[in-house]
Design goal:
two-stranded antiparallel ribbon, alpha/beta, 8 helices, TIM Barrel, single chain, globular, about 270 residues
Amino acid sequence: MERLEGRRSLWPLEGRPGAAKQMATKKRFFTADLHIHSCLSPCAELDMTPKRIIQRALAGGLDIIAIADHNSCENLEPALRLAGKMGITLLAAMEVASAEEVHVLALFDSLQAALGMQEKVYASLPADLENDPAFWGEQVVVNEAEEVLGFNSRLLAGATGMPLNALVEAIHALGGLAIASHVDRESFSVISQLGFIPPGVRFDALEVSGGKGVPPCVEEAGLAAVSSSDAHRLEDVGKKKTRFLLDGASFSEIASALKSEGGRSVVID
């Protein structure tokens, strides 16, 4: 095939003497980059394989990452297997484009939920449009060993037919988190496309590109802000990140932090 370049206690913590104090003080900060593209995204470089992304993330001191490809998650399963072997938390994710061309970061707690979202996305992509690799770039499906399994022929760079509110609700119906992508950019953001953050759209957080502080629209929306790299090249993985104060590295903990539950919090660099 073609190739691209502590033991667990037997006693539950809740049942031990002094457990309340231990549980109250065990939170720590976890560093996360929740928006990284693999070689499946046509705009990403071909060496953005799941294996190399994870290696880069570990070298950069990241605890949690999400590989969020455009309108697809076909590289997610090998990425999850590699993450388990290599010792990093990887969240199931996609970046979905609404009918208005608003990009939304969709995070899920399982591969099955992400695949359910992928099914909805594929059903809403224009059936008569295919990817032109010479124009958009290759959409490469790989395995854990970086071997090419195939090429996605759909136009993943395009918009789905799902209106923004319907897209966010579809993410929530699968138990996911809907984060408005790079709201401070001049293209493919809810601000660039609509001019405002619709009050009826139930975003769980807003993503900022970082470097310019939190824009007024984020503060006005009253939602948590996260910062991510939106990396399409290996050298950009972890350049923008978020620190979460959590009990552990997991989807549910991040969901609670976005709502500031139980002393959890979010800090953007």
